[in-house]
Amino acid sequence: MPTVELTYREALRRALREEMVRDENVYMMGEDIAIYGGAFGVSLGLLEEFGQERIKDTPLSESVIVGAALGSALTGMRPVAEIMFMDFITIGMDQLINQAAKIHYMYGGKACVPMVLRTPGGSGTGAAAQHSQSLEGLLCHIPGLKVVMPSSPYDALGLLKSSIRDNNPVVFVEHKLLYSQKGLVPEKEYLVPLGKSEVKREGTDLTLVALSVMVVRALKAADKLAQEGISVEIIDPRTLVPLDSEAIINSVKKTHRLLIVHEACKRGGFGAEILSQIEESDAFDYLDVPIRRLAGSDIPIPYSPGLEKGAVPQEDDIVEAVRELVG
Amino acid sequence: MILDKNDLVQIYKQMLTIRRFEEKVAEFLAQGTIHGTGHLYIGEEAIAVGACRAIKDEDYITSTHRGHGHCIAKGADLNKMMSELLGKETGYCRGKGGSMHIADVETGNLGANGVVGGGIPIACGAGITIKMKKLKRVVLCFFGDGAVNQGVFHESLNLASVWDLPVVFICENNLYAMSTATKIAFKIKDLSLRAASYGMPGVKVDGNDVLKIYEEVIKAASRARDGRGSTFIVCDSYRWKGHSRSDAERYRTKKEVMEWKKRCPIERFKKYLLDRGYLNREVAEQIEGEVNLSIQEAVDFAQKSPFPSLKTLEQDVYAS
Ligand SMILES: Cc1ncc(C[n+]2csc(CCOP(=O)(O)OP(=O)(O)O)c2C)c(N)n1
């Protein structure tokens, strides 16, 4: 299969392009997404191709971005709204949590809200406490929302296309540090289904479930650990809701050890959910050591570079955690 | 659109239907037959009826917690409404929504809303669909005076204005948001002044005058359909009943309520029709009978309907 090398950013852009060409009901809106191309350049060039009717620059109004996306989805469109930083979904939270997430159920299954909310999360850019959060845990708590978190260009492209075709509100969480990450993707059109995890590296000694940018760090850590003779299996759930827990269960049955790594604060983070699901499953009997979570500190993301790095798991932290669990 | 005699009589009948429906709901709330809360529209019937008469079946509305009147005016089936209020499987939302979430998206009712102001951005979204699909439709967005002080009011009216969305924003100013009088919550006396800051027309109208409301909404809707953008209409009216199920009404006097009851929008319109010979006592009585019958049928239908099975509990969280 012929492939091309794309960055995560380019992969997202290709997904948007393909879906807008395929379905005239798909359109984008958000702050500075048109001529500016979005704060991280994802939609750069789409204005020229699709015009301002379909690449809509909105005023600075997150609530109405989410709410208007919902209203147009409810009446037949397939909007892809962008919230410039994940932190600002809090401003559109009523429309997301109380409205979009509930409509299908609340209306007795008689209407649906096929919308995507794309937003970049995560730290590492020195943007400090109000521009660096990983808030996916908040969203996973809400029935009716789907939550997607791709870690590679391949997944970003295939998952965004599936998210746009999904008939539910999907929050699509990108990572700022991944936008320039390169990877091979097929030249031909393809989809990655929601609710299907991927084994990013096979191994036998320990199962490591990582989210978003932590997959990249885990892969590097696993290379290092391999030199010490430790074989790590890395699973990327790719979508948190719905979660492919089956794959994690099966892997744990094979490796007998589980480490969960994410950037979001540990307390109440999605790692706690994965941990509980494994605890409650028959994989529990296979565990040789207690499950461990490696996650962000329970603090706002600090500014100073050393502090910022210290706040979330780095490659060395992962290496160390694996050694402790395997050793 | 010129209203003929038949239209005028239908308008009267619809206002009366809302009144009688709400009186029944009040009774059910008092008895505990309806187990949640309910916000009654009694006293404000002219707004929903005048406004919805000015639009077509394919047009949209977004409604509020005080939404039964909008629902009926948009042509809802009383049986399904009453069933929903009683939590029955045959209700609009199969018993999962209740009073504050009745919706019928297929017939253009995008839903009541439990969050004050929550429907305003949704109306903008429907406006986007209309524009993008070049449908020549319009959205009526209803909300109370309380919603005018929500942040989304500002975001939404501004967006609607800069994008010329075909949305008519209709504020039902019944002088109170729960106990909070508009004079406490606003420094301005005339809420329609807010429109100026969005660069859209602001209109203030007597909310108990059904024909005046109709006229203003006709104007605003044709403006919207022609791509000339949104309008903000403030209808001054009054809620006769307490805010919801339990309200000691300590914030207003009996005298004030009595004063407003004298301005009953239905009695006033009935007099208008009688004076002009569009209605006589006999026909009026016949209408009253028909209305009461339709409410009774709705009650019977709802009471006979089954409650949803527990099997439906986890159904429809996600769309397939
Ligand atoms: C965001 C929000 N805040 C508070 C409430 C509780 N509440 C329900 S109705 C209401 C008053 C609304 O007043 P108004 O918008 O004027 O409508 P009215 O009830 O007068 O028709 C309040 C405070 C709510 N439902 N939503």
Describe this protein with a few key phrases.
heterodimer, A: 327 residues, alpha/beta, Rossmann fold, 5-stranded mixed sheet, B: 320 residues, 5-stranded parallel sheet, two-stranded antiparallel sheet, 11 helices, globular
What does this structure look like?
The complex is a heterodimer of chains A (327) and B (320). Chain A has two domains: 184 residues, Rossmann fold (3-Layer(aba) Sandwich), CATH 3.40.50.970; 129 residues, Rossmann fold (3-Layer(aba) Sandwich), CATH 3.40.50.920. In chain A, 36% of the residues lie in helices and 21% in strands. Chain A is built from twelve helices and 14 strands. Chain A is globular and about 60 Å long. Chain B has a single domain, classed as Thiamin diphosphate (ThDP)-binding fold, Pyr/PP domains (Rossmann fold), CATH 3.40.50.970. Chain B has eleven helices and seven strands. In chain B, α6 links the parallel β2 and β3. In chain B, α4 crosses α11 and α5 packs parallel to α6. The termini of chain B are far apart. The interface between A and B is large, with 45 and 47 residues.
